[in-house]
Design goal:
The protein has about 270 residues and is α/β, with parallel strands linked by helices. It has a single domain (about 5-270), classed as Vaccinia Virus protein VP39 (Rossmann fold, 3-Layer(aba) Sandwich), CATH 3.40.50.150. It has ten helices and ten strands. It has a seven-stranded mixed β-sheet with strand order 6-5-4-7-8-10-9, sandwiched between helices. A three-stranded antiparallel β-sheet has the order 1-2-3. A hairpin with a 2-residue loop joins β2 and β3 (about 35). α8 packs antiparallel against α9. It is globular, with a radius of gyration of 18 Å. The protein starts with 11 loop residues before the first helix and ends with a strand.
Length: about 270
């Protein structure tokens, strides 16, 4: 039997064969584990409760600081203008939110939505220290059931969060719903490195070094094993492009960064 750690899912058929569909018979995936849908929500909340205190530090350490460049490039791709209304879904500690707030000026409120209270509270001091603190609003809420009217926003952002949803497509449909016609979505996510040798090194780093660092600094090996497992189950760029187009976005484009480790999708609501 092949080691699951070495398996990158190339399409939906492979994903269903190895791990089942995204949600089938009330079951879904939490990393490589099959769990009940309600259990996944509990496990995701527990995961972020565990990592929240060191979340920003670990992001910088594990990515060697490159995540900051990925986020800047993603937000730049939105082409935000002064006055645009923006929502950051699964916004965590607010990195993308702060970048967007800088772009749309002090007069416009940027909304951050995240279901985890610990992550929101971890982000508040960082936001308060910035020049844009008064223009950022935190909401604890569900990405699959956003509490906003249709066509409320000019732009939607989701960075490294949609993998954690129980129903990913439901989350994207909600993002589509709250966008104005012609509004833009950026989805920044991890993906499959292109070069085979680099991919082998990345696999070793993901399943051996990252969990060890997680154990030493956060006190949880499992939290940093779930991360690479969830990345390998996430749709590759062409498949995700197809999903976004099926929901109604068009055109949809994507850009690979750092040899394909991260990908930013730009989708427009037609």
């Amino acid at each position: 039997m092949r080691d699951k750690k070495k398996i990158w899912i190339n399409d939906e058929k492979d994903r269903i064969k190895l791990h089942g569909s995204e949600s089938c018979g009330g079951m879904t995936s939490f990393g490589y584990k099959r769990v009940a849908e309600d259990e996944k929500r509990r496990l995701v909340l527990k995961h972020f409760d565990t990592v929240a205190g060191r979340y920003d530090f670990m992001n910088t350490l594990l990515s060697f600081g490159i995540h900051i460049l990925w986020k800047r490039r993603a937000v730049k791709g939105l082409g935000l203008k002064a006055g645009d209304r923006v929502i950051d879904v699964c916004g965590g500690t607010g990195d993308l939110t702060l970048l967007a707030a800088r772009a749309v000026s002090h007069r416009v409120q940027v909304i951050l939505v995240d279901m985890n209270r610990a992550m929101i509270e971890r982000g508040r001091p960082k936001v308060s220290r910035s020049p844009y603190g008064k223009n950022i609003r935190f909401i604890q809420g569900d990405a699959e059931d956003l509490s906003f009217r249709e066509q409320s926003f000019d732009a939607v952002m989701v960075g490294f969060g949609v993998r954690n949803l129980t129903h990913m497509e439901a989350g994207f449909r909600e993002m589509y719903r709250v966008l104005k016609p012609g509004g833009k979505l950026i989805c920044l996510e991890f993906s499959k490195p292109l070069a085979p040798l680099f991919r082998e090194l990345y696999d070793f780093y993901s399943f051996h070094i990252m969990p060890l660092i997680g154990w030493l600094i956060v006190g949880s090996r499992r939290a940093y094993t779930y991360l690479p497992e969830s990345i390998r189950l996430f749709p590759l760029p062409d498949e995700l492009t197809g999903i976004l187009k099926t929901i109604g976005f068009s055109p949809v484009t994507y850009c690979r960064m750092t040899k394909g480790i991260a990908v930013v999708h730009l989708a427009i609501k037609g």
